[in-house]
Design a protein that fits this description.
This protein is α/β, with parallel strands linked by helices and 254 residues long. The chain folds into two domains: 5-139, Rossmann fold, CATH 3.40.50; 147-252, OB fold (Dihydrolipoamide Acetyltransferase, E2P), CATH 2.40.50. The protein contains eight helices and 15 strands. The strands form four sheets. It has a five-stranded parallel beta sheet with strand order 2-1-3-4-5, sandwiched between helices. Strands 10-9-8-12-11 form a five-stranded antiparallel beta sheet. Strands 13-14-15 form a three-stranded antiparallel beta sheet, with no helix packed on it.
Length: 254
C-alpha cells in the first residue's frame, strides 16, 4: 500500500486554498489535507503542531514570505512551492531541484508533482534559502522607477521615494508615511512593496518597512530590538522586531 501524505495548504488567498483542495481530491489516495493556513505565522504553528509530511507553500504572504517560514521551521516536511513569479524566475527553483506549481495551477502540472512524490517519496527539504533568494533577485528585472504610484479613487498619486519615510502594515491595510506628515493608503501588501521598492527601503519588523535615507537616529532597545527615530515632521519612533536583530546588525554594520 502506497504512503498517504498528510498535507497543509498555506496561502493567504482563501480562493487559492479552495482550488488546491479541490484539485487534490483527484489524488485522495496519495494526499490527505489535514489543515490550512492563511499567514506565515499560522503556518509555522500548524506545521510544528501537526508535523505534516507535505506542505503546499505560497511564497508571497502578508506577514512572512515562504522563505521566512522555512527558516523558522524545526519540522522539515516535503515542500511544494506555489508561486505567481514570472516564468523566467522559475528557473531558480529548477536550479535548486525544488518542486513548484506556477499560479494559476493547472491539473496536469499538479499531476507531475504527485507522480514525483509517488516515485521518490521525498522531495528536496534541505533548501539553500539565501542562495535561492539571491538567484531570484538577480534574474528579476531591475527596479528603475523613482516613485511609487498610489491609486486614490480615480486619481493616481506619485510618491517620490525620497519623500517616503516608512510604510506600516495595520491589519489588512498598508499605510505610507511621507516626510511632510501625510499618510496614504495602498492596497499592496508590505511583502509585495518590499519586493517592488528599491534597496533603500529595509524591513525592521513584520509591520514596518523604512527608508534608510530617512533615519535620523538609531538606539539600542531592550530584548534585542532597536529604536529608529525617523527624519520626518513628527520624528516618528519605530521599534524593530526581535527576529530582525541580526539582519539590522548586518545591514548597518553594528
Amino acid at each position: 500500500m502506497s504512503q498517504v501524505f498528510r498535507a497543509i495548504l498555506i496561502d493567504d488567498e482563501p480562493a487559492a486554498r479552495r482550488l488546491m483542495r479541490n484539485l487534490l481530491l483527484e489524488h485522495a489516495g496519495l494526499v490527505q489535507v489535514v489543515a490550512e493556513a492563511g499567514t506565515g505565522e499560522e503556518a509555522i504553528t500548524q506545521i510544528e503542531a501537526l508535523q505534516p509530511d507535505l506542505i503546499f507553500l505560497d511564497i508571497q504572504m502578508p506577514d512572512l514570505t515562504g522563505f521566512e517560514v522555512i527558516e523558522r521551521l524545526n519540522h522539515k516536511p516535503n515542500i511544494i512551492f506555489t508561486t505567481a513569479y514570472e516564468q523566467y524566475a522559475i528557473k531558480a527553483f529548477e536550479t535548486f531541484s525544488i518542486d513548484y506549481l506556477l499560479k494559476p495551477i493547472k491539473e496536469e502540472r499538479l499531476e507531475q508533482s504527485m507522480e514525483k512524490l509517488k516515485r521518490f517519496g521525498r522531495l528536496n527539504t534541505v533548501i539553500d534559502v539565501p542562495g535561492l533568494q539571491e538567484i531570484i533577485r538577480q534574474i528579476q528585472a531591475p527596479k528603475q522607477s523613482t516613485a511609487l504610484s498610489i491609486r486614490t479613487g480615480d486619481r493616481i498619486i506619485l510618491l517620490r521615494y525620497e519623500q517616503i519615510v516608512y510604510l506600516e502594515a495595520q491589519d489588512k491595510y498598508v499605510y505610507i508615511y511621507t516626510i511632510d506628515g501625510q499618510k496614504h493608503l495602498t492596497d499592496l501588501t508590505l511583502t509585495a512593496l518590499a519586493e517592488k521598492l528599491p534597496s533603500r527601503f529595509f524591513r525592521i519588523q513584520k509591520s514596518y518597512l523604512i527608508n534608510k535615507e530617512r533615519i535620523k537616529e538609531m538606539h539600542r532597545h531592550f530584548n534585542g530590538r532597536y529604536l529608529f527615530i525617523m527624519d520626518d515632521k513628527t520624528s516618528s519612533r519605530l521599534t524593530s522586531g526581535r527576529t530582525y536583530y541580526e539582519d539590522i546588525r548586518a545591514e548597518f554594520g553594528l
